[in-house]
Amino acid sequence: MNQQTIEEGKSLAVISYLTIIGSIIAIIMNGEKKNEFTSFHNRQGLGLCLLWMLIGYFVSQFDNLQISIAFWVSMGSLLFLGVMTAINGSMKPIPFIGPLFQKLFKGLGQ
């Protein structure tokens, strides 16, 4: 992948990490161009947002500040890591769960 493709897709790649709405907007806007860099980060961002909602639902059932803080710190760290890799122009998957998101959402951007 060349540098021009990365530069063209950076803004949508970052948007894909901003909540589920940002992921949907980035997927729709990438529909015509099919930028490979943006598609990679769309899959990562969508997976991370869905995982955030799923785990957040179960964490909200506990009335424990320690569990909530651990959830917010861990998910916030993964989100920050995803945004930073998009800004840096890298296609490095999120640790542990990134390859799973690439497999689950492989139809996005093709």
Can you offer a commentary on this structure?
It is a single chain. The chain has 110 residues and is mostly helical. The protein has one domain (3-104). Helices cover 72% and strands 0% of the residues. The protein contains 5 helices and no strands. The radius of gyration is 14 Å and the shape is elongated. The two termini are 15 Å apart. The mean pLDDT is 92. Keywords: Membrane, Transmembrane, Transmembrane helix. The chain crosses the membrane at residues 12-31, 43-59, 65-87.
Topology:
Layout: H1 3-15, H2 19-29, H3 36-59, H4 65-88, H5 98-104
Short description:
This protein is mainly α. Helices cover 72% and strands 0% of the residues. The protein has one domain.
Order of helices and strands: HHHHH
- What structural class should be given to the helix and strand makeup? mainly alpha
What helical percentage do the residues reach?
over 70%
Number of helices: 5
Q: How many runs of DSSP E, i.e. beta strands?
A: 0
**What share of the residues does DSSP label as strand, in percent?**
under 5%
The major beta sheet can be summarized as:
none
Number of domains: 1
What is the overall shape? elongated
- Mean of all residue-level pLDDT scores: 92
Spans where pLDDT lies below 50 across 5 or more residues:
none
Q: What is the CA-based Rg, rounded?
A: 14 Å
Q: Could you give the distance between the termini?
A: 15 Å
Protein name: DUF4870 domain-containing protein
Keywords: Membrane, Transmembrane, Transmembrane helix
Organism: Olleya aquimaris
